[in-house]
Design a protein that fits this description.
Length: 397
Amino acid sequence: MGGTDYYQRGFGLKDAIRPELRADYHSGIVERLKASGYRMRAGTLTFTLAREFGFCYGVDRAVEYAYETRRQFPDRDIFLVGEIIHNPHVNARLKDMGIRFLRGPGGGGPGFDGVRPEDVVILPAFGVTVDEMNRLKTIGCVLVDTTCGSVLNVWKNVDRFSATGFTALIHGKYAHEETRATASRTTQYPGGRYLVVRDRAEAAVVCDYIRRGGDRASFLEKFSPACSPGFDPDAHLGRIGLANQTTMLSSESLEIQEMIRTALEGRYGRDEIPERFRAFDTICSATQDRQDSVLALIADRPDLMVVIGGYNSSNTSHLAALAARSVPTYHIQDATCILGSEAIRHKPFGSRSEITTPGWLPPGPVTLGLTAGASTPNNKIGEVVSRIAALRGVADI
């Protein structure tokens, strides 16, 4: 897309918006934690912070572009297609700035019908579907594209799969904005098709069908929300290109990759693999770094882990899942979830809703591990540290 109506590199206003970003998201507590070797005492509590945490480059960039857009177009109506990232506080701040959302978290919202050519529309870090982009082009509005570079990398691979007759098998959550956008790339090619698997269990169903075939109707019923229209497992599982939602658990993506390759080899023989299987590592580096940092932190055996970030944040929930394998772990949205030493509201991995756990903070000396998803701003981390320290009578940390 050319012309002056499409912006993918911001507006050169980073210096102008820096004070505003600092006021909204900076945390002195987090800076002190980093300066003290990611470890800090507060009375009988010891806080240890993962070496990689919080805002990643792609999120930083998306948020900066949104602030720049508001500064660049002070008198225009500005819309976001959907949540710019999965953090309720960041999205609420953008709404406070007068940026309106065309699509809400549950799929509701005013939609595109009210967008005019003179309006400005921000594309979120997850990207948008091919149909949505075409609709916006038709409207002719100003577009500010914050799609993450890691997502664009996945799209390139899916485009390549679809152009060469491979089914794009995507490890991801089919209802997630990023996965919907990625899957839609296949619609640009004659015969392009996709299938989304959420985890190893769903991948195992696909592998079994590759090896032995099966009940076509049952397969399609299971994957009906997660495959392209007209998908035929008897015809479309013979050549597979593997991709993934960038925020999935890296170890699981690699396991699924090996499962699919082995199944194809079992059905068609090793010599056929080069013509039947494609795979590229498209887990983003920030996701991988945060997962590796959690593993390093829990190797030091903290008494418990607190993971901070939006409940609909995929990368945050996977950090919680990793930590929960080894230590008691509490995924909280923000400091308001800490009800006191005796109770905490949190969302266990795989749960559909929050629960309240009593007695989460034991008496006496406690070492707490801390991390935050790539969409969590530093001020929310600092507020959690301050709230927990206050439970032990430490008011100034």
